[in-house]
Amino acid sequence: xxxxVIPVYNEEKNVSELHRELVLVLRKIGTPYEIIFVNDGSxxxxxxxxxxxxxxxxxxxxxxxxxxxxxxxxxxxxxGDIVVSMDGDLQNDPRDLLELLKKLEEGYDVVCGWRHPRxxxxxxxxxxxxxxxxxxxxxxxxxxxxxxxxxxxxKSCLEGLDLYSEMHRFIPSILSARxxxxxxxxxxxxxxxxxxxxxxxxxxxxxFTDMVVLWFWQRYRARPVHLFGAGxxxxxxxxxxxxxxxxxxxxxxxxxxxxxxWPLVSIFLMLxxxxxxxxxxLADIAIRNYYSVSKEKxxxxxxxxxxx
Length: 308
What we know:
alpha/beta
């Protein structure tokens, strides 16, 4: 069974056509399917248009919580063995599903779309190129297009996956770090015909912050004290070395310390090292509590509608 998850926010002119195209492709595939639209707090007539579509399930948020929360809600509601994600703005081509599913049958757990060529502004493409370099350095991610929402997953990959902030673009990196096989193929990227882009510069900044958090989470989530503690000890011993040097110089060589800043630097480094080490211990305790206590969701669902 296929589950198709589609977040939508103010896409009233696109959802009907997307549903029509998607149903044609899914019927051609020939397996049972469900289509889940996640209405991410739309303020136009999107929800009204969604209620007209037969054979769909609608998850409607109380307000706009963002694409990541919408994907998280859709993934948790999906019942299929294979989960498909895609945008609701008609820029992803449903016909590409055939090739994505064919690639999945080669033994992969996740197949991602690579929008090639991109129908976006030069600014978006430039930022995406920079983000790709950072992902490769921090996360070891070799995908060309982390921003493409058109992907197919085996449902088993998504078990225990909780998404927040702008983390939806890093799902392949997270799953790859967990040992799942991830690949990509080129897909069609159509120009937006209706509605307005939801991309803003602030999303790029949030994405960079999430990338750093994910880097830390992948490498030090079990024992953050290894990062903070090592850094704290390094600063402490550097400060201790400087202090010892000036102690010997003053005691045996009668070197005056008046007007010298390095003794103060040594004290600052030692105190900073102690603080960083203690921060690592506290982070270690917090992480242990994180694993023992379930987290609250970052979104709230107003209603779930099943259209017959």
